[in-house]
């Protein structure tokens, strides 16, 4: 099995070969007090040690942030709209709105 290719001025280009199974890397030690991000509230919550995705509190706080809102006008709002106020007891009103695609 060719693991990596090399090219050195004193050697011909070729491959490094491994005989047998390569040693897998040592997995990182899980944190003592792991936290995961709640993707609904965007708050870090403490979980049991060994929980998948658990990270240190500082790492969680750094990564668990609410994404910015989508700055694009929704497709179903693009166009010309007219609003008419017809409720009893209020002044009559009429509004025209032209909505276009907006990228911030």
The proportion of strand residues reads: 25-35%
Overall residue-averaged pLDDT value:
78
Strand order in the sheet with the most strands: 1-2
- The geometry reads as elongated
The total of beta strands comes to: 6
Oligomer state equals: single chain
Instruction: Round the Cα radius of gyration to an integer and report it.
Output: 30 Å
Q: What would you call the structural class?
A: mainly beta
**Unreliable residue runs:** 6-11
Largest sheet report:
2 strands, antiparallel
Element order, helices and strands? EEEEHEE
Estimate percent helicity: under 10%
Give a concise summary.
Helices cover 7% and strands 30% of the residues.
Set down the secondary structure blueprint:
Elements: E1 2-6, E2 14-17, E3 35-38, E4 43-46, H1 57-63, E5 79-85, E6 93-99
Antiparallel strand pairs: 1-2, 3-4, 5-6
């Amino acid at each position: 099995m060719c693991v990596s290719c090399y090219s050195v001025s004193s050697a011909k280009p070729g491959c490094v070969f491994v005989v047998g199974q390569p040693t897998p890397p040592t997995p990182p030690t899980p944190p003592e007090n792991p936290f995961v991000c709640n993707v609904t509230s965007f708050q870090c919550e403490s979980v049991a040690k060994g929980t998948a995705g658990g990270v240190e509190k500082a790492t969680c706080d750094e990564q668990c942030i609410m994404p910015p809102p989508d700055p694009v006008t929704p497709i179903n709002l693009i166009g010309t709209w007219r609003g008419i106020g017809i409720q009893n007891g209020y002044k009559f009103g009429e509004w025209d709105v032209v909505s276009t695609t907006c990228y911030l």
